[in-house]
Predict the 3D structure of the following.
Amino acid sequence: MQRNMNNFKILFTYFFLFALLFSMWGCDLRLRPNEEDTTTESFEVKRYDRLQSLYLQTGDYSALQQMNTTYPIETRTLIENVLQLGSVDDPDINSKFLIFYQDTTLQAVIKEAETLYADMDDLNQQFQFAFDKLQTFFPDFQVPMVYAQIGALDQSVVVGNNTVGISLDKYLGADFRVYKRFYSEQQRESMTREYILPDCLLFYLISLYPLSDFENRDQADRDLHMAKAMWVVNSVLQKKIFNTQSILTVEKYMHKHPSTTMEKLLKEDHLDEMKKL
């Protein structure tokens, strides 16, 4: 009887251990999907330009409807502020918008932009890297929604309420034939794919940390404030994308004040001291 009882205890122990291991294994199976669900979603530039291109080249009304429903703020900004065609509420604004882009130069720009930027995976990865870096240097940094559009060879980057619009028409390459009619060789050097990321970071940072009393500041103050943001972009990207005398002044200041963080550099003035360097 005693031996039977001992055998029973042994069997019970084995059964208990087996049940415990099985439950742990089962928990592991249940946890894995949740762990995958919490991974950070990769960054992606929104392709507003594709809807815009479809409407402007074919007159596809469904593309226009999607522009207005999915990207209402971006469409308003493009029509009213960038192109200055009038209010989006005007009854004939859609036809004005369509007719404006029938210009042969702008049609060439649209085709070149959609060919050159058919794939933007490289830019998505670059933005992801840069925003991750900025979040380490600026604790309260908010990643903006970045979208691509096609302007009219005017503004390169449009910054709104936590949004950044890339005008692809300004980044078609230094040798793009249309550019040679309107821009100098020096201007064309920065109208390339490589400048999209640094330009977006620069103007977004300037929007987050504007120069106080901008209208009443002299040009030296404005240049130095811009140079501070340029220095930050260079540091984040670990490349000397921007290179001006004012940036060298900021660099001297930062070497002299190693405890100054990037956030403090952009938040505080420092300009009078910088002018003395």
